[in-house]
């Protein structure tokens, strides 16, 4: 197996964007190419992750991107795996570079939905659930995670305020990220007093609907060394699955796919959760970050909410969680998110993360899932 | 042929159509094709009374399309008595958490464009 590296990364701002989905996808790709210091013609394949291109009248994005990069002959494909599309796309690219099929590939995630409005997004996102049992019966994604939150609050010694502390922390980090969607500090009271979306989750427990695109260049180690650019090594990659519906799960306070993916990634990397300096995790809702940090092994089951409340997950706390601001503050353009997490890790490990830098970080982890964690991918990166 | 029409007919009668693996006895909802425990494909149908208890739920105040006039309502995960199978569904007219404590007895009363419909016992 070839050793695989991330050679460059780029992102648009996340938020409400004016440009079309094609334009933002191309912009992020160009940024990644320039960050990597390569020529487009050195790219041998493109992996585009996207869920709702149909909302902006463009699916089959790959050839549009490649044509605008001047490499229309370059093969590409689109990957949809709900909110986990980006990391799954990265994984497929990783596997192909590791197998020796390609020396260098482009991985770009993208989404453009804010122009459709909250009704459209709430409705269409619910199609990512096990629709027969969930979306069809009136459950939105806030509703599904609210059901997990209620189970968590019922099972463990945790409060809604503990969950709210996750949002407060991620907004603190997002203020330091020039590309974040929601760049403002908030308080526990702001969260507690925000409108209930699906009890017990309130508006400020939820990530925003965002537009945005992120891109990375992935290559083998030989290619990386020849280009003598800053790069980071991909040392672990794992994927996993869970029952598609919440009703199919024995426990509602853990996400099986995260545990499976993390175990595989830690094994490949030859490390444990204790060796991780910081992580970008899938905090689509405050409760999700709490569950993630437990499933990834950073905290014992049932203690993640208190750990967040105690400040352990703050920037340069005992383990920095979501230094980018996470989905909650940085934003959640669903097809882009998984790639955006990796772009953040690249910036952190190559000294390009400015005020939000995790001190002395050598190993970063990303965890990104689809729907209620029905699919998940975990990746681990190490500085050179 | 999908078992969904049969599953829906059972739900309309207040029941859940389950499938029992003929090899290992594991129970599943009738919408599966292979046993999750032993991988076998042979099942016998089993009609289970749609009564059980609330495992968790949410009260939806920002609903998806088609549910605008129904909010607030609950979306509930319930565990069926005896079998331990879990199903989820729509439960109308729930305003606040006090209306639906975890563990409360609920039952299936139908199936329509709101999926499986539940009510408090």
Can you walk me through this structure?
The complex is a heterodimer of chains A (384) and B (121). Chain A is an alpha/beta fold and 384 residues long. Chain A has 2 domains: 4-115 and 210-233, Thiolase/Chalcone synthase (Peroxisomal Thiolase, Chain A, domain 1); 118-207 and 235-383, Thiolase/Chalcone synthase (Peroxisomal Thiolase, Chain A, domain 1). In chain A, 36% of the residues lie in helices and 18% in strands. Chain A is built from 13 helices and 12 strands. Chain A has helices spanning 21-36, 61-68, 85-98, 118-125, 141-155, 160-175, 188-193, 221-227, 256-269, 286-295, 304-309, 326-329, 337-349, and strands at 4-11, 46-49, 76-79, 104-111, 196-199, 201-202, 212-220, 232-241, 278-280, 320-321, 363-370, 375-383. In chain A, the strands form 2 sheets. A 10-stranded mixed beta sheet of chain A has the order 3-2-4-7-1-8-12-11-9-10, sandwiched between helices. Chain A has a two-stranded antiparallel sheet with strand order 5-6. In chain A, helix 3 (85-98) crosses helix 13. The two termini of chain A are 19 Å apart. By secondary structure, chain B is mainly beta. Chain B folds into 2 domains: 4-48; 50-120. Helices cover 7% and strands 45% of the residues of chain B. Chain B contains 1 helix and 8 strands, in the order H-E-E-E-E-E-E-E-E. Chain B has one helix spanning 4-12; strands at residues 15-21, 27-29, 43-49, 51-60, 73-80, 86-91, 105-112, 115-120. In chain B, the strands form 2 sheets. A 5-stranded antiparallel beta sheet of chain B has the order 6-5-4-7-8. A 3-stranded antiparallel beta sheet of chain B has the order 2-1-3, covered by helices on one side. Chain B starts with a helix and ends with a strand. The A-B interface holds A 118-119, 122-123, 126, 132-140, 142-144, 146-148, 150-151, 154, 195-201, 245-248, 252 and B 4, 31, 55-67, 70, 73, 75, 77, 86-90, 96-97, 102, 113-116.
């Amino acid at each position: 197996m070839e050793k695989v590296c991330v050679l460059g990364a780029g992102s648009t701002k996340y938020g409400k964007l004016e440009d079309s989905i094609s334009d933002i996808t191309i912009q992020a790709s160009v940024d990644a190419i320039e960050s990597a210091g390569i020529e487009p013609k050195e790219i041998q394949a493109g992996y585009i992750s996207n869920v709702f291109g149909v909302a902006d009248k463009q699916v089959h994005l790959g050839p549009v991107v490649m044509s605008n990069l001047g490499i229309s002959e370059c093969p590409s494909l689109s990957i949809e795996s709900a909110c986990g599309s980006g990391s799954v796309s990265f994984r497929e690219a990783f596997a192909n570079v590791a197998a020796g099929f390609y020396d260098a590939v482009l991985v770009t995630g993208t989404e453009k939905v804010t122009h459709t409005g909250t009704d459209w997004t709430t409705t269409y996102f619910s199609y990512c659930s096990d629709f027969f049992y969930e979306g069809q019966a009136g459950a939105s994604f806030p509703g599904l995670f609210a059901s997990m939150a209620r189970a968590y609050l019922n099972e463990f010694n945790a409060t809604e305020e503990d969950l709210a502390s996750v949002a407060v922390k991620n907004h603190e980090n997002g203020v330091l990220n020039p590309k974040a969607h929601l760049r403002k500090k908030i308080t526990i009271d702001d969260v507690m007093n925000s409108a209930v979306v699906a009890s017990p989750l309130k508006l400020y427990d939820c990530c925003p609907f965002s537009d945005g695109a992120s891109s990375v260049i992935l290559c083998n180690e030989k290619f990386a060394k020849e280009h003598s650019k800053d790069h980071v090594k991909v040392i672990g990659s794992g994927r996993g699955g869970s029952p598609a519906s919440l009703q199919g799960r024995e426990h509602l306070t853990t996400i099986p796919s995260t545990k499976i993916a993390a175990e595989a990634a830690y094994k490949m990397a030859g490390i444990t959760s204790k060796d991780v300096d910081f992580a970008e995790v899938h905090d689509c809702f405050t409760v999700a970050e709490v569950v993630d940090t437990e499933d990834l092994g950073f905290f014992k089951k049932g203690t993640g909410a208190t750990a967040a409340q105690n400040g352990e997950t703050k920037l340069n706390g005992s383990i920095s969680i979501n230094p980018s601001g996470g989905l909650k503050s940085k934003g959640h353009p669903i097809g882009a998110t998984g790639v955006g997490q990796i772009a953040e890790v690249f910036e952190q490990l190559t000294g390009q993360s400015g005020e939000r830098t995790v001190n002395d970080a050598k190993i970063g982890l990303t965890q990104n899932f689809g729907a209620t964690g029905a699919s998940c991918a975990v990746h681990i990166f190490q500085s050179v | 042929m999908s078992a969904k029409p049969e599953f829906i007919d059972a739900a309309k009668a207040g029941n859940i159509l389950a499938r029992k693996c003929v090899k290992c006895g594991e129970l599943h909802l009738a919408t599966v094709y292979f046993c999750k425990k032993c991988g076998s494909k042979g099942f016998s149908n089993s009609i289970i009374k749609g009564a059980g208890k609330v495992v968790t739920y949410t009260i939806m105040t920002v609903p998806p399309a088609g549910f605008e006039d129904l909010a607030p309502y609950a979306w509930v995960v319930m565990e069926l008595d005896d079998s331990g199978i879990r199903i989820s569904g729509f439960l109308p007219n729930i305003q606040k958490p006090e209306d639906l404590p975890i563990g409360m007895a609920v039952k299936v009363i139908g199936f329509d464009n709101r999926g499986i419909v539940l009510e408090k016992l």
